[in-house]
Amino acid sequence: DTGVSQDPRHKITKRGQNVTFRCDPISEHNRLYWYRQTLGQGPEFLTYFQNEAQLEKSRLLSDRFSAERPKGSFSTLEIQRTEQGDSAMYLCASSLGGGLGQFFGPGTRLTVL
Amino acid sequence: AQTVTQSQPEMSVQEAETVTLSCTYDTSESDYYLFWYKQPPSRQMILVIRQEAYKQQNATENRFSVNFQKAAKSFSLKISDSQLGDAAMYFCAYRSASVRFGAGTRLTVKP
Hints:
The complex is a heterodimer of chains A (113) and B (111).
Chain A: E1 5-7, E2 10-13, E3 19-24, E4 31-37, E5 44-50, E6 53-57, E7 65-68, E8 75-79, E9 88-95, E10 103-104, E11 108-112
Parallel strand pairs in A: 2-11
Antiparallel strand pairs in A: 1-3, 3-8, 4-5, 4-9, 5-6, 7-8, 9-10, 9-11
Chain B: E1 3-5, E2 10-14, E3 19-21, E4 24-26, E5 33-39, E6 46-52, E7 60-61, E8 64-69, E9 74-79, E10 88-95, E11 99-101, E12 105-110
Parallel strand pairs in B: 2-12
Antiparallel strand pairs in B: 1-4, 3-9, 5-6, 5-10, 7-8, 8-9, 10-11, 10-12
């Protein structure tokens, strides 16, 4: 296993379009996290899954954001009707249990024009 | 709500010297975990060290160690014998039911 992977690595879209990102965690990891990171800031928690169940979703997350993890494997994060303020790096991480450290993917950089 | 504060936006250290990065957090919970992550320029975030709140003994990983003061809600990272490859953003993180990261400290290592 080579670690957490994310696709695409870069996405440029026009305001108002929908985008979807994919994350493939380390295969035996039951927890999967999504974060948003803007330049010079720490990761901002968006949501996390334990297996296929979405256990927490940030109150900062608008209804335009939705995430799924069917069958407890890969996960997708969709942003509908993108806005310029959505431009950021979207990070995915996985872990084997909540108390263990998370393994991060390389991120998807979103630019909304 | 839990918050994590890193009061040093930037730090620098001479190669082979020791540097300490500060982190404080605010929580009303008694059971949680604390982490330090490293994010090199344009590279993935990686775990440096973790600490369980119920353990009094400070965690150590090679040149990296922490000073965990639970009553003071302080969790600093000490890097000994600093190397050029230690240059990165360092993030302190808190995990219980929720996950919170600090804003980060940019560490520069001078040769």
